[in-house]
């Protein structure tokens, strides 16, 4: 579970709810028709904009934003270096016996192609195409949440306009104008909350997770290609560690020095 996402969602709800409680009665902020206009209207717009399969995956997409764990790049590099050592010592064909213990199916895919003697350029091409398709799927999932974040305020404004038209069409009782205006503005409030407290932040978190996974897959591609080329494990380690931020590179160097000692 991503604690930052959970804390952000809870904190956003607490801040909004606290402001409502401190500012007046909770009851005046509850209006079912306004809520329906925003939620159902946004879903209708997303259904129009995206295929049904993408919309039905929205709960799973939102779940990924909360529960997806960032990859441990240092551990991934250490694993690839270990396989480079095995290939250097026992030959690349010996990696076939290690596929069941590999942590990522993407590593298994690349290693099996290398073991089978597939042309290196073809291995890299296939793995990069696989990565591109993964990024396209991630982009579509993010686009659905972006769509909800874009359409929710729009339908909030539509609901407000509907309420204003209804209110202005019935001006016989001036005392009801204030209450009618408050109800009309609630749809705008609902749309703004849903967009800025839920959908757009979760879409941004998905983009972050997608970038992290893409980096991990890129490291795997470079690692497999180095193993296939028969590079020295130290060269593989140095090459892959260039993808890490300086702090993690330093930590890796310290760990390697302790192991050598």
Structure write-up:
The structure is a single chain. By secondary structure, the protein is mainly α. It has one domain. It contains 10 helices and no strands. Helix 6 runs parallel beside helix 8. The longest helix has 53 residues. It is elongated and about 90 Å long. The C terminus is likely disordered.
Task: Draw up the topology in text.
Layout: H1 3-23, H2 32-49, H3 52-56, H4 58-67, H5 73-90, H6 105-115, H7 120-168, H8 177-229, H9 233-241, H10 246-260
Helix pairs in contact: 1-8, 2-7, 2-8, 4-8, 5-8, 5-9, 6-7, 6-8, 7-8, 8-9
Features:
mainly alpha; single chain; disordered C terminus; 261 residues; 10 helices; elongated
Helix content: over 70%
Intertermini distance: 37 Å
Give the C-alpha Rg: 26 Å
Mean pLDDT score: 87
Strand tally, please?
0
Q: Helical stretch count? A: 10
**Order of secondary-structure elements:** HHHHHHHHHH
The structural domain count equals: 1
Query: Uncertain regions: pLDDT < 50 for 5+ in a row?
Result: 257-261
| SS content category | mainly alpha
Name the shape in a single word: elongated
Give a quick summary of the entry.
Helix content is 80%, strand content 0%. The chain has 261 residues and is mostly helical. It has one domain (31-261).
